[in-house]
Amino acid sequence: MLIVIGIWLAAGGAIAALTGWSGMRHSRRLRRYGASTWAMIVPRKHTEEDDDNDANWASGNAMIQYALADGQVLERYSPGPARRSAELSPGQSVLVWYDPDDPQDLLIGGRNVAVADIAFLLAGIAFVLLGTALAAFGR
Q1: Domains identified in the chain, total number
Q2: 47 — phi, psi (to 5°)?
Q3: CA-derived radius of gyration, the chain
């Protein structure tokens, strides 16, 4: 029975480790090969669409506005802050990196901290090691 539990732990750990590694790789790719620009946090206007879908309005996600290299201006909700002190306020300028092929793929400077990615990677490695040890030495 310990062998089966070990295999399940190792499989779940491998998935978590791959998730963390993938997130770290994505952030690194945007910083190296993406285009960077300054973005402005704009005040959000409460609309009827927000009444229908309260996910972005109620979660406190900030609306971010940035210009592409060709001059096109895009607006989108930024991901919610991991901690309250990292909230973006209207009028604030932030450095962003975006994928020129997919401008909606955005990395906000000083905000998309890889802490969660590192945590997933380390926890995944720990579960893989634990699961492997259980499967190998379990009786």
Answers
A1: 1
A2: -120, 175
A3: 20
| Residue 128: CB atoms within 10 Å | 19
HEC per residue, the chain: CHHHHHHHHHHHHHHHHHHHHHHHHHHHHHHHHCEEEEEEEECCCCCHHHHHCCHHHHHCCCEEEEECCCCCEEEEECCCCCCHHHCCCCCCEEEEEEECCEEEEEEECCCCCCHHHHHHHHHHHHHHHHHHHHHHHCC
Per-residue pLDDT of the chain (139 residues; tens, 9 = 90+): 889 999 999 999 999 999 999 999 998 999 899 999 999 988 876 666 655 555 544 455 678 899 998 889 988 887 655 555 456 777 888 889 999 999 988 888 766 567 888 999 999 999 999 999 999 988 7
> What is the reported pTM?
0.70
Q: Domain range for residue 29?
A: 2-137
Residue 63 has which token pair? 């609306």
And the tokens for 12? 């779940």
The pair of three-digit structure tokens given for residue 100, joined into one six-digit string: 């020129």
